Protein: Enoyl-[acyl-carrier-protein] reductase [NADH]
Amino acid sequence: MIDMKGKVAVILGVANKRSIAYAIAEKLAAAGSTLVLCYQSERLRAESEELLESLGQTGTGKAIQLDVSRDEEIDAAFAQIAAAFPVIHTLVHAVAFAPADAIKNDFLLTKRDDFRIAHDVSVYSLIAVARAAAPLMTEGGSVITLTYYGSTKTFPNYNVMGVAKAALEATVRYLAASLGSKNIRVNAISAGPIKTLAARGIGDFTQILDAVTQRAPLHRNVEQVEIGNTALFLASDLASGITGEVTYVDCGFNVTGI
Structure:
């Protein structure tokens, strides 16, 4: 049993109970972590507080507004976090976005501004929040982000997000090199396709799920709880020698050819 009592985890991207970030939050909370859930805007505040309550964090954890596209909000959020928790141990970055047209249209038609937005929100935000979190990780710690196999192989209707995920994985490696001297580890989990609300924006998503079931060595799709288990491991001391890595949790789909 992994014990995270006395540890503080800051989690970005817990949109609802079906999100991968929520599954990670559940596992960290069950292991004893105190949680800080960051929500994008004021309209999501009540829902985030309800999610915090559902995780058994009322009175211990906090919900804080943080729009990763705004540097002033990142600074303000981590100032609030520092006031409540002088030391944090885990940072989970489960944030990604690209305009709908940049995902559903032919990749050749990607607009400059859509490309910029996808990389700003999905990639640069990891650098920005890691920079803000690092001074609070005085006991070392773990930074975890989420990626997808579309970073290395083309998938229908993934398009610019696949390019952003490739940049995200490179960012993981460079951040690992940058933060290693502070004993801060940086890793990515490459989750297989999961039926989340975010996944609804990907056309023909059911075809991808079916392909995994047919071709993956385990002949099934991965479940949220399995991503949560992997994140808990990477956040714990059991993974103390692992950094700069992309860990596939996709029932083995990535090792297959045809």
